[in-house]
Amino acid sequence: MSEGNGVIMKKSLLSRFIFCYLALILAIFILMNTLGMRILENRLKDDAFDQLYKEADLIRSEYITNFYDNRLTLEDFTKQLRSIDTYLDIRVWIVNSYGTIISDSAYISNAISLNLNELNPAFLEKQYSEYTVFTGILNGPVLSVIQPISYDYQIRGYIVLHRSLETIKNDAIYYMDIINICLLIFSPLLLVIFLYIFFITSRPMKQLMKAAIEYSLGNYKYNLSIKGPREYQDLGAALSYMASEINKLDDYQKRFIANISHDFRSPLTSIKGYAEAILDGTIPYEMQDKYLNIIRFETERLNKLTSSLLELNSFENSGAFLDIVTFDINYIIKKTAESFDGICMDKKITLNLLFSEKETLVDADMGKIQQVLYNLIDNAIKFSQANSEIKVTSEEKGDKVFISVKDNGIGIPREAIKKIWDRFYKTDSSRGKDKIGTGLGLSIAKEIIQAHNENINVISTEGVGTEFTFTLTKSS
What we know:
single chain, alpha+beta, Beta-Lactamase, Helix Hairpins, Heat Shock Protein 90, seven-stranded mixed beta sheet, five-stranded antiparallel beta sheet, 11 helices, 12 strands
């Protein structure tokens, strides 16, 4: 199926690329031959007007004075004008003050002796005309420039220059044909570029699709390696990372189910067994109180496990709602330590409280910080030997307060240091030494401290001891 999907994807992409290529070529061709043609004609008109004005100034400066001073005959003057007509394709009229054409550079359809005022009285009053028509005199519409001739401070006549609009249009068509030929030559190169883009796009896409299908089938270890544009490599890396995280989550869920099944099954088995033994009379009446106490203990253990799970779930789903108040952390440490007096006395463990200041005020959620202290001290007691000491300290450093719980117990194996924050994680020593722990205490402690935007760390040496340290913000 994945191979078929890849073929479909390839065909779809290829057809789209070909469609885009043809659409682009067609759009460029239409745009150039409509809007581009109009812009080109307007530009050629502007250039033609500039040329007509320059030629008019040249005729006025080079020939007009000599003509009116009788140093240049009308015949010679006309010859000069015909040279301009021949080489520049500009028709020139010299018109006297009465509007009569006295010189015409054209050989055919010569307009000499025609009076422009009779044909169009307003024509000589203009400086230029973008569309001049004199039927029978001019070969079609022309651009015209009219320049008055001033001699001895009098208007003696006019220089009139024409440029055929048909010529300008033909020039525009000529230039546009050249552009179209260039487009025709450029089209294969553009096709090569489009095909290159297609191949560097379709191959990574096919690899990404293959990887997505493998991951959807649960093969999270599928190796995705993409060579190509940086963007596809980044996308592939993100997809691989997502798969690895899902794989971790999948493994975590399996461990979660296994651990919670174990932690629930053990007390439930005890409760069920002792309850049935009491009911069927296996346990004599005088011994029932003992086993009822065991049932109550196991029930409390299940209740504690359920409460811990619910608390962790509240952190994960909506974060912890913190009731930040100012309180003396040293007082909370003392009160929490007092709750362990009985178990410490039984195990002959000394809780040594050391404070850098008599009173250390912090801003935090007092109830949750007390829970962190309870979990850390409880953890230290579980892994401490008889006749040992546990130190609980608080020390101010700048705007922070460092609280430490240090034991001289069995320590944590190096390979287990990073795992102790995982839910339900218990070292082998823990399972052999303490079967009633939930494996959630350190997870809860870390969630609470992180909710305060603070840090909690551990230093441990196997066979020497463990020290947990967390920070709180000192009250200002």
